[in-house]
Write a structure and sequence with these properties.
The complex is a heterodimer of chains A (310) and B (116). Chain A is an all-alpha fold. Chain A is built from 11 helices and no strands. Chain A has 2 domains: 73 residues, no CATH class; 231 residues, no CATH class. Chain B has a single domain, classed as Winged helix-like DNA-binding domain superfamily/Winged helix DNA-binding domain (Arc Repressor Mutant, subunit A), CATH 1.10.10. The chains are: A mainly alpha (310), B alpha+beta (116).
Chain lengths: 310, 116
């Protein structure tokens, strides 16, 4: 009798542990989907579970993460693809531009703050508020890259703050075109969107989380830095985001992510063009590493649209 | 794996084909579909829940299945799905296409072989 009760209690604990783990996996789904169908999915998952099982089978876990991400991509693939893709591309450029200034916030707090505010405005879809902020930041970035102290007499060169270690001075290694080109491209993209007078999508605040890990290498004028400790975060973020773009275009048949990738690659082309005399096979390989997935994403979106598979 | 494509219709993957085939016998809920598909495929197609509900969402969005009714069992909602006329037409056309494709081989195999 005691043994039977013990088995029952253990089985109950197993089911609760399994349910808890399934709920964690369901976080891959959009909140709206979870609210509408989360309990139904949990019910079906527990019904199909083998007795005494406390951990989800690998195939089930993979299918839930894949299904959740796909549901997110399908929900994002609504509205005009070009406008949303352009907004996403502008978002990536602005986050990267903000990340480049972050290690120097102690020396240029106002300009870093303005870049942060511009990022916030872009993420919230406030195009009209973001545009003047971007002009101010682009002007200051250009001045620093040209070695001019105006408008506030900042002592140049600008070195990183203590927590970021002994990195190079801000925009020390290249010409002024690349840093300004990225902000100018973001400005132009956002200006086109603002001219439509159609509200932009509000993007996740989690984009902010990309800025600190990207900061140490975000301002490198060359695409790959000689110091391998400085580039992995940027390279990993670039490759991971581009692979996500390829996958999202493939499953939805929507080209918005390929457009965003193309905007980013365009800014990187400006970097390479300015620094072409110093670019070697490694820099060209890096550009190819970015351009190939961007092109693949566009091709896969087209292919999925043509060959609709249920 | 994509099973194939009926002219003018979307291609149907194997899991989707079996989901539609399972609903030919009447409305089923998620767990019922998984069990029925496993039986129909003789244990070959074991649908993970994440895959099943993704496919059900896409089929419903295309009007090939619809929610017949909702129940609450042990405090949890449960939807029963049914085939629409379009869904029935699609799975029937797909079955005919595969039957024709299979006959290309089976009709040319001599009596006494494994296909007869």
């Amino acid at each position: 009798m005691t043994s039977g009760l013990g088995t029952h209690v253990t089985a109950g604990a197993d089911v609760r542990a399994l349910e808890r783990r399934y709920r964690r996996l369901l976080l891959a789904y959009p909140p709206g989907y979870r609210a509408a169908h989360g309990e139904e999915l949990i019910g079906t998952l527990l019904e199909t579970a083998a007795p005494g099982r406390a951990t989800p089978p690998l195939a089930e876990a993979v299918a839930l993460v894949h299904g959740g991400l796909r549901a997110r991509a399908e929900r994002a693939a609504t509205g005009p693809a070009w406008a949303d893709g352009l907004h996403l591309g502008v978002t990536v450029l602005v986050v990267a531009g903000f990340a480049a200034l972050l290690p120097y916030a102690g020396s240029i707090p106002v300009w870093t703050g303005l870049a942060g505010l511009a990022t916030l405005a872009v993420l919230n879809g406030w195009a009209v508020a973001a545009l003047p902020l971007m002009v101010l930041v682009a002007a200051r970035v250009g001045a620093i890259a040209l070695g001019r102290p105006w408008p506030d007499g900042t002592l140049l060169p600008v070195f990183p703050d203590a927590p970021w270690g002994e990195g190079p001075a801000l925009y020390q290694g290249g010409g002024p075109v690349a840093p300004v080109a990225a902000w100018a491209l973001a400005f132009l993209g956002l200006a086109v969107l603002a001219a439509r007078r159609v509200p932009l999508r509000r993007r996740s605040w989690r984009w902010w989380l990309l800025a600190p890990p990207l900061a140490p290498a975000a301002q490198d004028p060359l695409l790959l830095n000689a110091d391998p400790t400085r580039t992995p975060a940027r390279l990993l973020a670039e490759v991971a985001l581009l692979l996500l773009a390829v996958w999202a275009c493939h499953v939805t048949g929507d080209p918005r992510w390929s457009l965003a990738a193309a905007v980013y690659v365009l800014a990187k082309c400006a970097e390479l063009a300015e620094n072409l005399p110093y670019a070697g096979p490694r820099e060209l390989a890096h550009l190819a590493l970015l351009a190939f997935p961007a092109a693949a994403a566009a091709v896969l979106a087209h292919r999925t649209r043509r060959h609709d598979t249920l | 794996m994509v099973v194939g494509m009926v002219k003018g219709s979307p291609a149907v993957s194997e899991p989707t084909y079996f989901i539609l085939a399972a609903l030919l016998d009447g409305p089923l809920h998620g767990h019922g579909i998984i069990k029925h598909v496993l039986g129909l495929s003789e244990g070959r197609v074991k649908l993970p829940v994440g895959t099943l509900y993704g496919a059900l969402d896409r089929l419903a969005a295309k009007g090939l299945i619809a929610v017949e009714r909702e129940e609450v069992v042990e405090g949890r909602p449960r939807r029963y799905f049914r085939l629409t006329d379009d869904g029935r037409a699609l799975v029937t056309a797909e079955a005919r296409r595969m039957q024709q494709a299979a006959s290309v081989v089976t009709s040319r195999v001599l009596p006494g072989s494994a296909f007869t």
